[in-house]
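TASK: fixed-backbone design
INPUT:
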């Protein structure tokens, strides 16, 4: 997968499939399942690290998780999420940190929001060889400004505003646009009028593709389940059952079994048996 192929999927009306991943073993399974894009999202702050929001993670943590995902999914198109305040201070800071994500194994970066400063950052990244996925609609890094998890683009004017900034981001070089928590009709209008693919999360059926948080669809993260996150598995139950069974086996003495232990050679064992402290 690469940017041209993602654009071709939009042209051909084929849906783009995106999902988040945060660790090596999950990334490996996801790559084997055949998706178009893996995002190392800053949502890891909540689902992997247990924080209430995404504000707390920094570039160094994102680099560690991105390295793990890149090792697990070496053939995939991996987008590394730029965390809060890792690209907002100066173009130089943004470029330097974007470079860290690419060096960690990401094929592209994602940034939230749009303003004139970010347009310059997008074009400087692209000029430096760093593809950028933009992110509009509900942008969690602006939650304290927005005032909570609120649907965006709820009016005609707000929809036009999102399209205008989406268009500017595309002109600056962004290869795609994540649209989060936007009414379906607005997301369709934006998708129909934007030259780049839109990847929706809570943005209805007509985006060029969809992305969801892996821990949500796998039923592993249960602190909060958004309306738009369809659950395809219940790992919570599966893991709980497995751990309960393991605990019961340890307590009953049925784990470990004979075939799950290492043994001394007969000679060494005989020496041990002759030791005065040997208990039979
Ligand atoms: O961090 C994340 O997982 C995201 C997706 C929700 C798009 O930004």
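OUTPUT:
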């Amino acid at each position: 997968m690469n940017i041209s192929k993602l654009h071709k999927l939009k042209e051909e009306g084929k849906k783009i499939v995106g999902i988040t991943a945060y660790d090596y073993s999950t990334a490996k399974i996801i790559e084997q399942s055949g998706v178009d894009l893996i995002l190392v999202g800053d949502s890891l702050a909540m689902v992997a690290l247990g924080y209430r929001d995404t504000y707390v993670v920094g570039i160094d943590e994102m680099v560690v998780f991105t390295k793990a995902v890149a090792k697990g999914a070496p053939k995939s198109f991996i987008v590394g999420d730029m965390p809060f305040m890792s690209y907002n201070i100066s173009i130089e800071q943004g470029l330097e940190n974007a470079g860290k994500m690419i060096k960690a194994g990401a094929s592209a970066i994602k940034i939230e929001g749009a303003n004139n400063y970010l347009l310059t950052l997008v074009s400087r990244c692209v000029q430096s060889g760093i593809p950028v996925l933009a992110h509009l609609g509900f942008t969690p890094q602006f939650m304290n400004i927005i005032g909570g998890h609120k649907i965006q683009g709820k009016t005609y004017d707000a929809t036009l505003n999102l399209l205008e900034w989406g268009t500017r981001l595309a002109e600056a070089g962004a290869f795609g646009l994540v649209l989060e928590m936007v009414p379906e009709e607005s997301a369709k209008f934006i998708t129909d009028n934007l030259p780049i693919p839109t990847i929706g999360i809570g943005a209805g059926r007509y985006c060029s593709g969809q992305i969801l948080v892996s821990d949500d669809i796998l039923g592993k993260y249960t602190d909060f389940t958004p309306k738009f996150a369809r659950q395809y598995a219940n790992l919570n139950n599966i893991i709980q059952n497995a751990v309960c069974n393991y605990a019961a086996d340890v307590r009953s003495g049925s784990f470990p079994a004979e075939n799950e232990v290492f043994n001394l050679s007969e000679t060494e064992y005989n020496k041990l048996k002759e030791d005065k402290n040997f208990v039979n």
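COMMENT: The radius of gyration is 24 Å.
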